[in-house]
């Protein structure tokens, strides 16, 4: 069974409600129509009702059976405002909350936090900051996780060769503790896609071949990650070729359980991660699906503003699958 067939099987007819705060965008509407017709999720469209209907009509999409939630007419508005004020713990007054929650991303995030939705997909129109900031303020990270992170599922070929690259989207220069948390979160994300997580902590050094402060960070992060999650196979520091190529691994890291067999690649900083996944995508012919936000109490997914309808469709499926995690 191919990857997305397997993911669809996990969520079909489970009626998982996903909020779409950019409901006037044709890419969102097209993907939402597909998801609903295939009974993969229950898309909830957020926006001014007449604007959403007009956008759907111009695209030739029927909204029969769709739920549209408009911040201006939401029946549980007062309850939402009160919940937001409580969640922000003095950082927003009632008047400020009423203003903030008119923003569709904040509105959708609060719907998710309150359990009206099980997840949210945004970012086709909004920046990463506009999508992620409400999630960090309201949904927040899981216990033991200090920061969220962004992973990409890298898929190539009909044989569904697949890996996970992380963090390629959020943290500019994580410290050793944060890098360790990213590694553990990435291992858990990999399991969603039936990837046996063998986590490589990447560097320009393999097992002491180079000395530098940047290498020391990866060495320390590896130790912390191994302590945080002893049931996962995590090793570092490893150069990419040592992590990926068995013959190089045999030479550079013969005693490693990960070298030459890595399936999860954790980059030391955002610069390396972003460059790395794009090289694999453009030179290596991999499809890069994501970013998949990790570490939040409830799933919120951030699309690229350059996404197409297929990207929205696939990331929505992944978001729905994430709701099945404990």
How would you describe this structure to a colleague?
With 326 residues, the protein is of the alpha/beta class. The protein contains 13 helices and eleven strands. The protein has helices spanning 3-11, 26-37, 49-59, 77-88, 94-100, 104-113, 128-139, 176-192, 213-228, 240-244, 246-252, 270-282, 309-322; strands spanning 17-20, 42-46, 67-69, 119-122, 149-156, 161-166, 198-202, 233-238, 264-266, 287-294, 300-302. α1 (3-11) crosses α13 (309-322). It is globular and about 65 Å long. The protein starts with a helix and ends with a helix.
- Shape, principal axes of CA atoms: globular
Helix content: 40-55%
| Element pattern in H and E | HEHEHEHHHEHEEHEHEHHEHEEH
Described by strand count, sense and barrel closure, the largest sheet is: 6 strands, mixed
Strand content: 15-25%
Summed over residues and divided by their number, the pLDDT gives a mean of: 93
The tally of beta strands, per DSSP, is 11
Radius of gyration: 21 Å
Distance between the amino and carboxyl termini: 24 Å
For the largest sheet, list the strands in their spatial order.
8-7-9-6-5-10
Please count the helical segments.
13
Structural class estimated from helices and strands: alpha/beta
Low-confidence stretches: none
């Amino acid at each position: 069974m191919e990857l997305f067939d397997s993911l669809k099987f996990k969520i079909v007819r489970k009626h998982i409600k996903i909020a779409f705060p950019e409901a006037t965008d044709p890419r969102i509407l097209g993907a939402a129509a597909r998801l609903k017709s295939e009974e993969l999720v229950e898309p909830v469209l957020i926006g001014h009702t007449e604007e959403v209907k007009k956008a759907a009509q111009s695209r030739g999409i029927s909204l029969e059976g769709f739920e549209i939630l408009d911040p201006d007419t939401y029946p549980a508005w007062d309850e939402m405002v009160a919940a937001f004020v409580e969640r922000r713990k003095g950082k927003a007054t009632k008047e400020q909350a009423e203003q903030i929650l008119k923003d569709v991303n904040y509105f959708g995030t609060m719907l998710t936090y309150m359990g009206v939705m099980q997840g949210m997909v945004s970012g086709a129109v909004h920046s990463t900051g506009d999508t992620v900031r409400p999630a960090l303020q309201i949904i927040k990270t899981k216990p033991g996780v200090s920061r969220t992170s962004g992973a990409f599922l890298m898929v190539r070929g009909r044989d569904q060769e697949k890996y996970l690259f992380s963090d390629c989207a959020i943290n500019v220069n994580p410290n050793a503790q944060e890098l360790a948390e990213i590694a553990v979160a990435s291992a858990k994300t990999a399991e969603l896609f039936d990837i046996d997580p063998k986590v490589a902590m990447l560097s320009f050094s393999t097992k002491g071949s180079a000395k530098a402060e940047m290498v020391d960070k990866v060495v320390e992060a590896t130790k912390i990650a191994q302590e945080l999650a002893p049931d996962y196979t995590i090793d570092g520091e490893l150069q990419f070729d040592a992590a990926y190529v068995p013959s190089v691994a045999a030479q550079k890291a013969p005693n490693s359980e990960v070298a030459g067999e890595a399936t999860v690649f954790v980059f030391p900083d955002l610069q390396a991660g972003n460059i790395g996944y794009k090289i694999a995508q453009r030179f290596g012919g991999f499809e890069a699906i994501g970013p998949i936000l990790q570490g939040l109490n409830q799933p919120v997914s951030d699309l690229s503003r350059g996404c197409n309808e297929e990207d929205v469709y696939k990331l929505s499926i992944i978001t729905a699958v994430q709701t099945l995690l404990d």
